């Protein structure tokens, strides 16, 4: 197991994944986020590209947490894996919901 059952902290890579997801959830609502300059490679250009990748990573992490939860024998550890799995699903759902208007405008 990556974390010992006695710790209640989130692993650094998982925390970075969740922070990245929250950043991308907020990004489409920032004024001027849809304005692109041809010579600018920044978050404005990278955010739409990384959004589907982050969603897939969140869902993959949720599957791995399910595997960890099923292999865990301690109730507290199982509860922690379940809570983290729920956070992944919530972040993935919010990420998809916040980017739907962007992709609809892109395709029309």
Which SSEs are present, and which pair or pack?
Layout: H1 12-26, H2 43-71, H3 75-107
Helix pairs in contact: 1-2, 1-3, 2-3
Describe the structure.
By secondary structure, this protein is an all-alpha fold. The chain has a domain at 48-108. It is 71% helix and 0% strand. It contains three helices and no strands. It has helices at 12-26, 43-71, 75-107. Helix 1 (12-26) packs parallel to helix 3 (75-107). The longest helix has 33 residues, at 75-107. The protein is elongated and about 50 Å long. The model has no long low-confidence stretch (mean pLDDT 83).
Give a brief description.
This protein has three helices and no strands.
Number of extended strands: 0
The assigned structural class equals mainly alpha
Detail the poorly predicted runs: none
Strand content: under 5%
Distance between the termini: 46 Å
Question: Per the principal axes of the C-alpha atoms, what is the gross shape?
Answer: elongated
Largest sheet: none
- By DSSP (H or I, 4+ residues per run), the number of helices equals 3
Pattern of helices and strands: HHH
Summarize the amount of helix as a percent range: over 70%
Rg measurement, Å: 17 Å
Task: Let me know the average pLDDT.
Answer: 83
Please give a handful of descriptors for the protein shown.
108 residues; mainly alpha
């Amino acid at each position: 197991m990556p974390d010992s059952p006695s710790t209640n902290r989130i692993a650094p890579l998982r925390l970075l994944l969740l922070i990245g997801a929250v950043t991308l959830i907020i990004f489409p609502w920032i004024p001027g986020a849809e304005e692109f300059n041809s010579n600018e490679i920044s978050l404005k250009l990278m955010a739409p590209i990384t959004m589907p990748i982050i969603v897939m990573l969140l869902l993959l992490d949720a599957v791995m947490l399910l595997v960890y939860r099923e292999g865990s024998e301690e109730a507290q550890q199982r509860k922690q894996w379940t809570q983290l799995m729920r956070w992944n699903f919530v972040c993935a759902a919010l990420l998809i919901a916040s980017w739907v208007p962007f992709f609809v405008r892109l395709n029309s």
